[in-house]
Design goal:
The complex is a heterodimer of chains A (213) and B (350). With 213 residues, chain A is mainly beta. Chain A has a single domain, classed as OPCA outer membrane adhesin/invasin (Lipocalin). In chain A, 8% of the residues lie in helices and 73% in strands. A ten-stranded antiparallel barrel of chain A has the order 1-2-3-4-5-6-7-8-9-10. Chain A starts with a helix and ends with a strand. The model of chain A has no long low-confidence stretch (mean pLDDT 86). Chain B has 350 residues and is an alpha+beta fold. Chain B is built from ten helices and twelve strands. In chain B, a hairpin with a 6-residue loop joins strand 4 and strand 5. The longest helix of chain B is centred in the last third of the chain and has 30 residues. Chain B is rod-shaped, with a radius of gyration of 45 Å. Chain B starts with a helix and ends in a 5-residue tail after the last strand. The chains are: A mainly beta (213), B alpha+beta (350). Chains A and B meet through helix 1, strand 6, strand 7, strand 8 and strand 9 of A and helix 7, helix 8 and helix 9 of B.
């Protein structure tokens, strides 16, 4: 794992070092809407249950000076293999600061609720996220974001051991128009009850939005 | 001081005496004596005195000549010498196109003879200011043509050599005609410095029988134009395109793309059947390459483009400003025109 972190750090360093001060990476004020192909894999005592579906996603970002805020809402149905679909709602809201043009830190809650046969399971993670943004080519930019949960809570009888995740996306602006597009990938891992259970969530997001620069 | 004042007074008195003598020389006493004889109806004496005055070696002014010829013609008329009267009146009419007998001094019979004589003499005069300054496009040179009888004239202005000829008027004149010259000659060009001549030709049967020529000394004054600034050297411009940006984009794209591909592994997640990282990582990596291919000549450097445009615009502004200033200077052309005494020539074609 150490060499992987070293490689990851090196890649971040390269991306940061070669980034120019010019280039628009994200809108100052933007609203995105799109869809997410989501997969949730739950592992309990070596048994893996996988649920997949398409989820609708709405996202808003706002930057003013070095302050930033963003929110996300996703809603859909997860379909387990050979089981009944389960409703999913996910929401998060973050506030943070842009330390310099390419690096920002933000924090806030992420809530994910899934309707189970026994009732609704709601988990809330208090996350701290770090994002590196870099312009790639003119109207195209990319970012990579990593996060870890500083605290977690669930409304059912389970203990949140740890949770962390990462996200990467490529953003593009339509020349001459305030229209933005985003293709992103996110992956999260959470451990519960002293390692008895774990959950991995990953998905591809494709969204378009309107954004002011 | 008294002695000096007395000297001054003596000098003034001497000058007055000299002036009076000169005046007397021009106002021949024979004419005054002839006028007295005419008033006494002594026409023979009048005619004799006037002839002597006209033959006098002292040059008479034109007005005095006219006065003498008028009394001579009237005397001859009253003496029954009609032809002699007509000859005297013709000579009088030739002196000045505006010359007329005073109706208070001479009776209608005499006036009638004079008018007959005047109609047989066709003269024309041109009046031009002795000195005039003409601003091109703003002021003009006034020219007055005076004729003693109806006739056809052609008024031209040309260099003494005949070049740069411009016709100011061609047609008939009865009494007087006001013309102007705007300082332009043939082809609409501004007159050059040098000797020009205003010619008024009286025509008969299409041929000039008498030409009045007024020599004009023309001096052209024009402000120098300012030189234009040299166009900025190529070395003053900064490069407007650079490949560094697209190349860095490729490097960044690859770094971020590989980072995206490695995210599941970094999270300790099972990477099997995860095509998401490959799709997104590949898209990020490819976008850098696309950026390079989209700008094979390099990406525009906006700051340098702005800098270069500022250099070009600054130079262009100076050129435009000088163009306006030079146009103003070119248009600010003055002609100083000095007219000399008219010369009468017989039979010179315009």
């Amino acid at each position: 794992m150490n060499y992987q972190r070293a490689i990851g750090g090196g890649l971040l360093l390269i991306a940061t070092a070669t980034a120019s001060a010019s280039g628009q990476m994200a809108p100052r004020l933007g609203i995105y809407a799109g869809g997410m192909m989501l997969r949730v894999q739950s592992e309990v005592a070596g048994r893996v249950e996988s649920m997949t579906d398409q989820v609708l996603v709405g996202e808003a970002v706002y930057t003013r000076g070095f302050l930033l805020a963003e929110g996300l809402y996703a809603q859909g149905r997860l379909t387990p293999a050979g089981g009944a679909p389960r409703d999913l709602v996910e929401a998060r809201g973050f506030a943070g600061v842009r330390i310099f043009r390419m690096l920002s830190i933000k924090g806030g809650p992420q809530i994910r609720a899934v309707a189970l046969p026994s009732g609704t399971r709601r988990r809330i993670f208090w996350e701290v996220r770090t994002r590196i943004e870099a312009p790639i080519a003119g109207i195209v930019g990319a970012y990579a974001e990593g996060w870890t949960a500083m605290a977690g809570r669930s409304n059912i009888d389970e203990h949140v051991d740890k949770a962390h995740g990462a996200e990467a996306a490529v953003t593009a602006r339509v020349p001459g128009l305030p229209v933005w597009g985003k293709l992103g990938y996110r992956v999260e891992f959470a451990g519960f009850d002293q390692g008895l259970r774990s959950e991995t969530v990953d998905g591809i997001t494709l969204s378009i939005g309107v954004g002011l620069r | 001081m008294r002695g000096r004042d007395a000297g001054r007074a003596a000098m003034v008195a001497a000058l007055m005496l000299v002036g009076a003598a000169l005046l007397r020389a021009q106002q021949n006493p024979l004419i005054d004596q002839g006028v007295v004889a005419y008033d006494n109806l002594d026409f023979e004496t009048t005619a004799d005195l006037m002839r002597r005055a006209l033959k006098s070696p002292v040059t008479l002014e034109v007005s005095e000549q006219g006065r003498a010829l008028g009394y001579l013609g009237a005397s001859e008329f009253f003496l029954g010498h009609r032809d002699a009267a007509v000859l005297a009146f013709r000579d009088m009419a030739r002196l000045d196109a505006r010359m007329r007998l005073d109706p208070l001094l001479f009776p209608p019979d005499v006036q009638r003879i004079y008018d007959e004589a005047r109609r047989t003499v066709r003269i024309v005069q041109a009046e031009v200011p002795d000195e005039a300054e003409l601003r091109m496009g703003q002021t003009v040179l006034p020219i007055r043509i005076i004729a003693n009888s109806q006739q056809t004239i052609v008024v031209t202005l040309a260099r003494e050599s005949g070049e740069d000829r411009v016709t100011l008027y061609s047609g008939s004149i009865t009494d007087s005609l006001d013309l102007t010259w705007d300082g332009r000659v043939g082809g609409g060009n501004t007159a050059r410095s040098g000797k020009y001549a205003l010619q008024v030709a009286s025509l008969s049967g299409g041929r000039a029988f008498r030409t009045v020529k007024v020599p004009l000394q023309v001096t052209l004054e024009r402000q120098d134009t300012l030189p234009f600034p040299r166009a900025p050297e190529q070395s003053q411009y900064l490069p407007e395109r650079s490949l560094a940006g697209p190349l860095k984009g490729v490097v960044r794209g690859f770094a971020m793309g590989i980072l995206a591909i490695g995210l599941p592994a970094a999270m300790g997640a099972d990477t099997r059947a995860m095509i998401g990282p490959l799709v997104v990582g590949g898209a990020i990596s490819t976008s850098g390459l696309v950026g390079l291919l989209a700008h094979p000549g390099g990406r525009p450097i906006e700051s340098n483009i702005t800098y270069n445009r500022r250099i070009r615009e600054t130079w262009q502004r100076r050129v435009d400003s000088l163009t306006v200033e030079n146009r103003r200077r070119r248009e600010n052309v003055r002609l100083t025109i000095r007219a000399e005494s008219p010369v009468v020539q017989q039979g010179v074609n315009p």
